[in-house]
Design goal:
By secondary structure, the chain is an alpha+beta fold. The protein has six helices and six strands. The chain has a four-stranded antiparallel sheet with strand order 3-4-6-5. A two-stranded antiparallel ribbon has the order 1-2. The chain is globular.
Length: 160
Amino acid sequence: VTDSDNNVTLSAKAMTHFEDMFNAAAAAGQSFRVTSSYRSYADQVSTYNYWVSTSGTTGADTYSARPGFSEHQTGFVVDVAAGSCVLDCFGSTTQYTWLQEHAADYGFIQRYYAGYESTTGYKAEEWHYRYVGKTVAKAMKTRGIKTLEEYWDIEGGDYR
């Protein structure tokens, strides 16, 4: 489902929850914008190849998913930004603080945290939010679990 007003394409299952979160953030004075959401396989090929061209395969694999492995291809992920702050600086914004407090209420989690690179396979991405449903998101928050790998008791971290 595409919401052209907010530049977001998500699974129908996630869209309503995202729109509710987006509107609640705006009402609280914590507006953010979407920089990326659903990506087709072809879009992920382009995205990954760009990062390989700038960092090589080994470098790109720490922050960009290979085509066929990207959470963006699921339709359950949004990358967000605030004002002129995109990517790495997002973690220093009040919008980030708001999302840390409220995203679980809408079924979203920050997917990649610093210190969990060996678990997830990716560097921290304060801007990358994944819809997992309210039950899972709230359970993770309550129990202090930062990764889906830990929550589901599965291994992650690389492509092997």
